[in-house]
Riboflavin transporter
Amino acid sequence: MTHETPQNPPLAAALILLATVFIAATTLLAKALGTATLGPALHPLQISQGRFVFAFIAISTAVVVLKQKIRQPHLGLHIGRSTFGWGGVTLMFASVAFIPLADATAISFLNPVIGMVLAIPFLGERVGPWRWMAALIALGGALVLLRPTPESFQPAALLALGAALAMGAELIFIKKLAGREPPLQVLWVNNLIGMAIASAAALAVWQMPTPAQWGALAALGVMMAAAQACFINGMARADASFVAPFAYGTLVFAALYDALIFAILPDAITLLGAGIILSGAALLAWRESVNGKRPTVTLRRPAP
């Protein structure tokens, strides 16, 4: 069964931009929670648990208010998506405690490239020379951001790279789920399963948060739920090739938050690496729109 949504490109663009504001804010809160900003640093597994718990509460409230019925979810696809989504979120939260938000966010934009590669064996898609060129460009940008010299190498950047790999794998399940269930049902089931996985993983490292950390965890979860809702509804209201560029707003807002809150300004390497990655992602989105395909670049973000 498919679910059609009336097309409204201006609203779609606004929703995607709003989603990027929220997504970048979640990485900001994760950085604050993973450092000593709000109290003793919390483990990334606990931060991830808080994200899923409070997001599930927010989405469950919406389910009740909107009287959304949960019917025949494709559990296998949801479990796969939630597992990789949890892994990507956790690794992303771990990385931002050590490297600038802009660096981690830029590296995470490799996820459509990973999704493209995985789509070959798992979705039977064919990849032409233009798409391989886009992949190589984006990977070159990631190499720049990793700063692979003994003096400047950032080991924590490998965590962001791992997040991109997990998010790329999640794309495969998102594409398989596309149009099969109502958006709110997808969000509810995804966060329910994610909450179960995250809670089990956090048991060994859980510690009592400070009042400020409780507030940040709640805000993180609610903003992630809002970002997911905005993103899914935005994607449903316009062609993916139209909304793709607006998804890059995440990087802009991440850099802005870094500058305003942590007084960290992007350096030349960050700007160069991010520019190369976004060029590759944009080329991939353009080529797939030319081919009449739905660009994987717009299916997942950030999130961290």
About this structure: The chain has one domain: 9-298. The CA atoms of residues 87 and 197 lie 10 Å apart. The radius of gyration is 18 Å.
